[in-house]
Structures are given as structure tokens and as C-alpha cells.
Amino acid sequence: MRQVLIAVAAFALGATAVAAQNVAVIKERKDHYKKMGDAAKPVSAMYKGEADFELEKVQAALKIMQEQAVILPKLFPDDSKTGEKTEALPIIWEEKADFESRFKKLGEAAKAAEAKITDEETFPDAWKEVMGNCSGCHKKFRKPKS
Ligand code: HEC
Fold first, then answer.
1. Which residue of 1, 36, 123, 143 could cross-link 87, Cys pair, CB 3.0 to 4.6 Å?
2. Cα 98 to ligand 1 centroid, rounded to whole Å
């Protein structure tokens, strides 16, 4: 009897989980992206020549990207496709392997750039390469800005 009750309870729990969209995780991933965007912003200003080069800020941004590249792929469960004005496109869940491999590539590119960038000379090319990973993924997997 006890086992039957547990089974019934587990089924009920499962059913609720499927029905409700996981809005908490959508909020969470947006926060993590924002962290990455906020770190990249001052460095992109340096890249455009709108701010003075500061190696420390560049290196800090590259570290944050490496951290986020590990955290973010876990924040796209099947029950987080809609809600919270998500800009995530359904193709993420159709091509999960491609999507996840892009985070891996971003992490690797940020790591390589961390070693490569030592001064203003070595900065632009390596930074551009890292940022290509952001725009490449957004183009395919994120709703375009309307
Ligand atoms: C593997 C794919 C992928 C990569 C790589 C990627 N992004 Fe994104 N990004 C997304 C998706 C998908 C969303 C939409 C998330 C949502 O709305 O649920 C997003 C959203 C964002 C947002 C908006 C967050 C918000 O507040 O709604 C920012 C900012 C952002 N990304 C910055 C970056 C930066 C900077 C990089 C590179 C360092 C990057 N992203 C790399 C897929 C990616």
C-alpha cells in the first residue's frame, strides 16, 4: 500500500512539473547572460576605441565568460521554452548538441584569449574572436531584436 501511495505521489508531482513552465530557470539564465554582457560592455568600448585599454578589465571579462560557459548550458531544461519573455528559440531544444557545443567553444576561446592578450597590441584580434562566439549563437538560437 505504501509503495502505491509513493507511486501516486510521484506521478502527481511529475504531472505538475510538466504542466508548469519553469520560469525561475529562465530568470536565472537571463541573470547569468547579463553578468556576461555587463563584463563584456566596457571591453567592447575599448575595442571600439571609446575607452582606454585596461588589461585587468579584459582579463576579468574573459574569466566571467569561462565561468558562465559552464553554468549556462544547464539552464535550458525542457520545461523552460516559454515564459518570462524569453528570447530563446525552440531550435535550442531541437539542436541541443550544437547549442551546447557553442558554450564549450566560447569557454575555450575565452581561455585562449586570456593567455594571448597581454597588452593593447595583442588585444583586438583575440577579443574579436571571442565575441564571434556570442553573435554566432545569438544569430541562430536567440530571437532577433524587433
Ligand atoms: C550557445 C549560445 C549562446 C552563446 C555562446 C552566447 N549567448 Fe547570449 N544568449 C543566448 C540565448 C539563447 C539568449 C536568450 C535567453 C533567454 O531570453 O531566455 C541569450 C541572451 C543574452 C543576453 C540577454 C539577457 C537578458 O537580460 O535577457 C545577453 C546580454 C547576452 N546573451 C550576452 C552574451 C554575450 C556577451 C556572449 C558572449 C560572451 C553570449 N551572450 C554568448 C545564447 C548564447
1. 143
2. 15
pLDDT at 145 over 60: yes
Average of per-residue pLDDT values in the chain? 92
State which ligand 1 atom lies nearest to the alpha carbon of 38.
29
pLDDT-based confidence at residue 21 (cuts at 50, 70, 90): confident
Residue with cell 555587463: 38
The residue contributing the CA closest to ligand 1 atom 35 is: 37
Residue 142 confidence (pLDDT): 98
Domains annotated on the chain, with CATH: 22-141 (1.20.120.10)
CA distances from 107 to 15, 23, 129 (A): 36, 26, 12
**12 Cα: distance to centroid of ligand 1 (angstroms):** 34
Does residue 94 have a pLDDT over 60? yes
